[in-house]
């Protein structure tokens, strides 16, 4: 009876030992499999990054080539055709079409539309690059209430507002003033400050507008 018990204990120990070995083997196999998957994923990611870097390098080469060509062309131009002499902004005009309009036909004028024409030394209208500050004033009011609204139009927005129609060629700037004035019955003053980004010069102009 004792012998059988010892034999059974040995079998149990052997079974436990075999189970442990099998677990270690399976665990190492899983780890190896996971390791292989991880390495494959890393390799695929590296390939993608290499492809992206190659594309960026090619793009930079193309950009550099274009810049070199532009430099070559510009270096061949006469001195009179460079810098601010490409055009010389002389003045800025606020046209007579500048006013407050009822755009949604509800009986209330709620849109201030400002037409601005940059003029060169020859008196021609040019699409000068720059920024515009616009102010709307009621000069009949006290100083604290005279300024009804002010807006800034940046260069990237301004270049999209070039307007060419029967009314003339100009920048057309539209501002919502529904919450700025209750009634438009008296003359108001529009002031515009145009900063020319080519020469750095600042031009100021103002115009009195009246209800139609």
Could you explain how this protein is built, in words?
- There is one protein chain.
- The chain is an alpha+beta fold.
- It contains 3 helices and 9 strands, in the order αββββαβαββββ.
- It has 2 domains: 1-76; 87-209, Immunoglobulin-like (Sandwich), CATH 2.60.40.1940.
- It is elongated.
- Helices cover 39% and strands 30% of the residues.
Q: Brief overview, please?
A:
With 212 residues, this protein is an alpha+beta fold. It has helices spanning 2-75, 143-146, 155-158; strands at residues 89-94, 99-101, 111-120, 130-137, 147-153, 162-165, 168-176, 188-196, 202-209. 12% of the residues are buried.
Record keyword descriptors for this entry.
single chain, 212 residues, alpha+beta, Immunoglobulin-like, 2 domains, five-stranded antiparallel beta sheet, four-stranded antiparallel beta sheet, 3 helices, 30% strand, elongated, disordered N terminus
Give helix % range. Answer: 25-40%
Q: What is the ordering of alpha helices and beta strands?
A: HEEEEHEHEEEE
Structural class: alpha+beta
Mean pLDDT, to the nearest integer, reads 81
Query: Can you summarize the main beta sheet?
Result: 5 strands, antiparallel
| Number of separate domains | 2
Radius of gyration: 38 Å
CATH class of the largest domain: Mainly Beta
CATH topology of the largest domain: Immunoglobulin-like
**CATH architecture classification of the largest domain:** Sandwich
Q: How many extended strands?
A: 9
